[in-house]
UniProtKB/TrEMBL annotation:
This is histidine kinase. Its EC number is 2.7.13.3. PROSITE patterns: HIS_KIN, RESPONSE_REGULATORY. Residues 28-142 form the Response regulatory domain.
């Protein structure tokens, strides 16, 4: 059964969201100092405070360590036995523009400080320094890193939403014209249907053509909904009734090699959504999961109540604090590497072969969830399957 500890890490859009129950990765700091004893002592202090310290004693090894470990902050001594700390900071900034560099020296001067800042150093510490001052400075550096990352993610999300809106306008125009064509086909086929009843073979062909027109109409409806901010009519949905009905449909649709299961939490809250879009979204996710398991596997649907608190990391990605119902679609397929996960919600992005996928499925599901006031999360690794979490707000409780 899904509960809050199962939702430890997922992607909300492009963002990695760690749950509080999951141990977070240590903050990495690169120490560059030719004094081996001082560097080891400083590294020991930082390790005790929960940091991961990497040590280098000269510029070449420091640049290799930067490329290998990707630290967020580096402490660089101004005077190195081989090379110059200020020049190393300048090289660091070219190698990794987001790296935060702190200069450390026992020979402080205004000229050196100005030169270091001009080279791209963020701050300046003079030996000997109190450990409290160092730790406070490091916390300020990592807070700056966090804010820079949030700004980058917001900019990426804004760009993605603008692309989705543009795609919505384009697909809406195409769908409108296509609907006009389908209307002509539908009218003519219905006329034919009335006049070929005495010829079973022709009648069957007309019925097949009408089914194709119906499928085309459903497709244009999905395209018209894509990218829209406004939704259609919503209704309160009891997932305890809706999801078992969906399972019956999926058992007839999916390959016999795919096992299907459903687990619902007790006292599951209702959600207020567009029922047809909810069903279409879950069918879409099920078909994606089927494609990820060409040799068979297990597809699980789970649903549970979930509370997002103000200090939850998911809030940074736009999931407002409050009560939600989380619908999880979990497969045992080939999973997604990080590069694919980060692009999974981009319109027209697909890893499927030509003609096998449009790249609109997940963006459409994401659009539906956002219209409903929620967010979509992705948790996946290569060869470990994929979990898609739909965070849907709890329906407003009716007043007694």
């Amino acid at each position: 059964m899904t509960d809050q500890t199962d939702l430890q890490t997922d992607f909300i859009g492009d963002d990695v969201i760690p749950h509080a129950a999951e141990p977070t990765e240590k903050k990495r700091v690169l120490i560059v100092d030719d004094d081996e004893d001082f560097a080891a002592s400083l590294a020991g202090l930082l390790e005790l405070e929960g940091y991961q310290a990497i040590i280098a004693h000269d510029p070449p090894s420091a640049q290799r360590a930067l490329a290998l470990h990707l630290p967020a902050v580096t402490l660089v001594d101004v005077r190195l036995g081989v090379g110059n700390g200020v020049e190393l900071v300048r090289a660091f900034r070219q190698q990794s523009p987001d790296l935060i560099c702190l200069m450390v020296t026992a020979y402080a001067s205004v000229e050196t400080a100005v030169e270091a800042l001009q080279a791209g150093a963020y701050d300046y510490l003079c030996k000997p320094f109190h450990s409290a001052d160092l730790l406070a400075t490091l916390e300020r550096c990592f807070e700056r890193t966090r804010l820079m990352e949030e700004k980058r993610l917001v900019a990426e999300r804004l760009g993605q939403m603008q692309r989705i809106e543009a795609m919505g306008q384009l697909t809406g125009g195409i769908a409108h014209d296509f609907n006009n064509i389908l209307a002509v086909l539908l009218g003519n086929l219905r006329w034919l249907q009335e006049h070929v009843q005495t010829e079973p073979q022709l009648a069957q062909m007309v019925d097949d053509a009408l089914e194709a027109v119906k499928a085309g109409t459903e497709l244009t409806s999905r395209l018209l909904n894509f990218g829209r901010r406004e939704g259609g009519d919503t209704a309160r949905v009891d997932l305890g009734e809706a999801l078992p009905d969906l399972m019956r449909v999926l058992r007839r649709t999916l390959d016999d090699k795919i096992g299907l299961s459903l687990e619902l939490a007790d006292d599951l809250h209702e959600v207020e959504v567009q029922p047809a879009q909810l069903e279409t979204s879950l069918l879409n996710l099920a078909l994606n999961a089927r494609d990820a398991m060409p040799d068979g596997g297990l597809l699980r649907f789970e649903a549970c109540n979930f509370v997002v608190r103000p200090d939850d990391a998911r809030v940074a990605s736009g999931l407002l604090p409050g009560q939600y119902v989380v619908i999880s679609v979990i497969d045992t397929g080939h999973g997604m590497p990080l590069a694919v996960r980060r692009r999974a919600l981009e319109p027209l992005f697909t890893t499927k072969a030509a003609g096998k996928g449009s790249g609109l499925g997940l963006p459409m599901v994401d659009g539906f969830v956002r219209q409903s006031g929620g967010r979509l999360g992705i948790s996946s690794n290569p060869d470990e399957g994929t979990r898609i979490n739909l965070y849907l707000p709890r329906a407003v409780q009716s007043r007694p």
